[in-house]
Amino acid sequence: MTRETWATRAGFILAAVGSAVGLGNIWRFPWVTAENGGSAFLAVYLGVVLLVGVPGLLGEFVIGRRSGRNPVGALRDLGGSRSWGYVGLFSAVTALVLLSFYSVVGGWILRYAVETGLGLLTGGPAPYFAEPGAYFGGVESGLDAVAYHVLFLALTAGIVVGGVRKGIERATTVMMPAIAVFLVGLALWASTRAGAGEGYAFLLAFDLDTLRANFFDVLGPAAGQALFTLSLGAGTMVTYASYLGEDRSLPFDATTIAVLNTAVGVLAGLVVFPLMFAQGIDPSATGPGPGALFVGLAEAFATLPAGTLIATVFFLVVTLAALSSSISMLEIPVSILVDEAGVSRPVAVGGSVVVLVVTGSVLALRPPLFGVVAGPVVDFLLTAGLTVFLLFVGWVLGREATAEFRNGAGDLAASLADPWRLAVGVALPLFLLFTLLTSLGFSAWLTGLGLPASAGFWATVAAAAAVVALAAAGFRRGRAAS
């Protein structure tokens, strides 16, 4: 069976940007930013995207294009052992966990879009305008949440079953420009609202004192958000890059995707925060967690002129963004089943969706479990997954990775291949494991035992370094044995 490829370079970039530009930008980014200090969080987040996100994207791209396989086949073939294929299965598990909660949130958004649109057609207000908080409480769980979760999965499956060119590429080349146009229009309109300047200050003002005081508190959430929004750690970019030709510049593509994704995230913030502050709503006071955006924006829309129209456009944008990412997640288990088990694409899509209907329905009926999965579980899986990919690139592929990095790249980009390999083999895994241990409370635990804060910090660094050293040694032995 001939494996599909992208029809055009633009198609690949738009699909990859579509994978990155999703709920992480428009749903998760605003409430994580609000919970972690606004501009202080944004500064740390942008640094993580530049120093970790772009090299991480390149790492996954190198694995995918070098192998021309899904994550299981890629690690198995490049590592020279079936054991590496079992490591690649971690990506399938991560993708299923991600899409289990993601499709539930997609269902929420789809319901808001449908009911707001119906209000627009009938000339009445959206049903959540009266009591936004109470309305979201009825939306986030229960049988209705299950029904919309299943409907969202059906839309996702309908795109993925069409394949790479006729399904994913065709859909994202329409959705991504539409998302950009709608967001720019909403941001321009939001800028005209009285009080919008406070929203800009909350998001963009550089507060050095706050950054110094809260740097390590926001580092973990910033890293988790960067990995989530760039679709790193689950094997998405390995899968998408496996459909690439040999003449593409991977450094150029990775940088373009990271820049466009970050621009959309900031653009979403330029819509959300000015609207909230214009109506006197403090984003950090709307209640923590995934419902903050829905409740806070609903309050803003309810008091705005043409609020129903603006709300309809906004939730349409978010629905398109959610779909552009969900199709990339579904493609991971589908590509594994197609490539490794030899099943047809429709059967692979159907089987994956059946599993997701069950797992997502459990989360839709259990909000506390949903919160755990959407937060710390996802951050852990993505961090661990990306760490494995980076160590594989640095210590298993080695010189093959730098050769793939240079393939199709210009002279300037090619000169960065060796520093990049050092970074992905040592520095970035160390950073990722440090942030993971910090977010899990390791430093705080050591401090609680009586160690000074500085000693807890360095002990955390030492623990992360020890794990990286042991993992690198294990990866090298695995490569030698194969």
Automatic annotation (TrEMBL):
GO terms for cellular component: membrane. It holds the Pfam family SNF. The chain crosses the membrane at residues 12-30, 42-63, 84-110, 146-164, 171-190, 226-245, 257-281, 301-323, 343-365, 377-398, 419-445, 457-475. This is Sodium-dependent transporter. It is found in: Membrane. InterPro entries: Na/ntran_symport (IPR000175), SNS_sf (IPR037272), YocR/YhdH-like (IPR047218). It is a multi-pass membrane protein. It comes from the Archaea.
